[in-house]
Amino acid sequence: MAKRTLDTFFKPSSTAPKRPKTDPIECNTATAISPPEPNNIPIEDTKPPSQHPSYPIPIAQLPSHIEVGLEHATPANAPREINNQPHLDLLHFQPYIPRATANELFKFLRRELPFYRVQYTARRGEVETQINTPRWTTVFGVDETSTFIQEQDDNPNSLVLVETKTKTPTPKTKYQCTPRPIPACLDLLRRQVEAANANANADNKIPGYNFCLVNYYASGDDSIAFHSDDERFLGPEPNIASLSLGGERDFLMKHKPFVSGNANRMTGGCVPGAARATSGPGSTSATRGSCTDSGATLNLVSSPGSRPAATVPLQIKMSLGSGDMVVMRGATQSNWLHSIPKRKGKAGEAMRGRVNITFRRAVVPGGTNNYYNYNVGSGGMYRWDEVARDMVLRDSKV
Ligand SMILES: O=C(O)CCC(=O)C(=O)O
Ligand SMILES: [Fe+2]
């Protein structure tokens, strides 16, 4: 076969036989992994999907043209350190994944993952509010007290959940949810993001992500409210890597309020508008006090003895394009809020849809319960439908 460059991977080959058009849903069924017809289906489509009793559907493996793009050209750029604001410690890879690969990965994940539109009740004192999460979500992983291990050496799909310390089976009663192993297509990314982080850290420390949360913003009406991922179940100073795929969206950050007369932040931050679904009621994020959400630059005026008098712009806006990755680390989560605001207009980038993946490490079972509760919930499972160009309900059970 003629040598193909990376670029040609993304162009239809004029000589290669055409792949038969199939319903994308069928890619996950047993029929899709039956032996390929000779010279008809490329080898890349024969890789068996990731399967597990906790999955509502088998999850396809990455086609080799995406895997090649990830393995040979990622990271596409070295990260820029952003730490010129109080308590802010970010790495910005722009991009992390080359754009062409990122766009392919966006379409693949939107098509192959199960998604949920989670509804839940938030309680503040006596007041109960019904929250409709304004985006599609899904989650994989388990906190560090449990581990998925392969039961049969030659079968990567034979994963069972055991106690990390004793390697004995995790009791069914340990979780209020059924943890799902990170499928192969996301696990490759997880390992790469960990390595990129280790390279960027002076101490070369690998964050050891055990959770992968996925958001799909179908249009400018989908969003995530100001929040911080500072729940206790993530431990102190969590490292969270956030990867953007597909349409460009604004990412806003603002410092939590400072107590007047003290440059340290006020304990308790804010989540104007709504609690966020990855945290939900009961978490530190959802129970914060109020603060302004004007979008204006906030001024920090310090007091004698704590911080020299200064005016510091405490609002940041970044435009995140396909393949970009932001790593939030150090004191960032305990001092800053972030959001993806709604975007007006019925055309443009937001209408392409955007997938966001965050990798994190949860340290206690409460984190596992929280993440499944607010990212899978108890409603129906949806899948992307290429014809309807929308998420379609596939199973009224999770
Ligand atoms: O979509 C994004 O870039 C942000 C997602 C996020 O903040 C989260 O899932 O906690
Ligand atoms: Fe977040």
UniProtKB/TrEMBL annotation:
<dbReference type="InterPro" id="IPR027450">
    <property type="entry name" value="AlkB-like"/>
</dbReference>
<feature type="binding site">
    <location>
        <position position="360"/>
    </location>
    <ligand>
        <name>2-oxoglutarate</name>
    </ligand>
</feature>
<dbReference type="InterPro" id="IPR037151">
    <property type="entry name" value="AlkB-like_sf"/>
</dbReference>
<dbReference type="GO" id="GO:0006307">
    <property type="term" value="P:DNA alkylation repair"/>
</dbReference>
<feature type="binding site">
    <location>
        <position position="215"/>
    </location>
    <ligand>
        <name>2-oxoglutarate</name>
    </ligand>
</feature>
<dbReference type="GO" id="GO:0051747">
    <property type="term" value="F:cytosine C-5 DNA demethylase activity"/>
</dbReference>
<dbReference type="InterPro" id="IPR032852">
    <property type="entry name" value="ALKBH2"/>
</dbReference>
<feature type="binding site">
    <location>
        <position position="217"/>
    </location>
    <ligand>
        <name>2-oxoglutarate</name>
    </ligand>
</feature>
<dbReference type="Pfam" id="PF13532">
    <property type="entry name" value="2OG-FeII_Oxy_2"/>
</dbReference>
<feature type="region of interest" description="Disordered">
    <location>
        <begin position="1"/>
        <end position="41"/>
    </location>
</feature>
<dbReference type="InterPro" id="IPR005123">
    <property type="entry name" value="Oxoglu/Fe-dep_dioxygenase_dom"/>
</dbReference>
<feature type="binding site">
    <location>
        <position position="354"/>
    </location>
    <ligand>
        <name>2-oxoglutarate</name>
    </ligand>
</feature>
<dbReference type="GO" id="GO:0008198">
    <property type="term" value="F:ferrous iron binding"/>
</dbReference>
<feature type="binding site">
    <location>
        <position position="358"/>
    </location>
    <ligand>
        <name>2-oxoglutarate</name>
    </ligand>
</feature>
<feature type="binding site">
    <location>
        <position position="230"/>
    </location>
    <ligand>
        <name>substrate</name>
    </ligand>
</feature>
<feature type="domain" description="Fe2OG dioxygenase">
    <location>
        <begin position="208"/>
        <end position="363"/>
    </location>
</feature>
<feature type="binding site">
    <location>
        <position position="227"/>
    </location>
    <ligand>
        <name>2-oxoglutarate</name>
    </ligand>
</feature>
<protein>
    <recommendedName>
        <fullName>Fe2OG dioxygenase domain-containing protein</fullName>
    </recommendedName>
</protein>
<dbReference type="GO" id="GO:0035516">
    <property type="term" value="F:broad specificity oxidative DNA demethylase activity"/>
</dbReference>
<feature type="binding site">
    <location>
        <position position="338"/>
    </location>
    <ligand>
        <name>2-oxoglutarate</name>
    </ligand>
</feature>
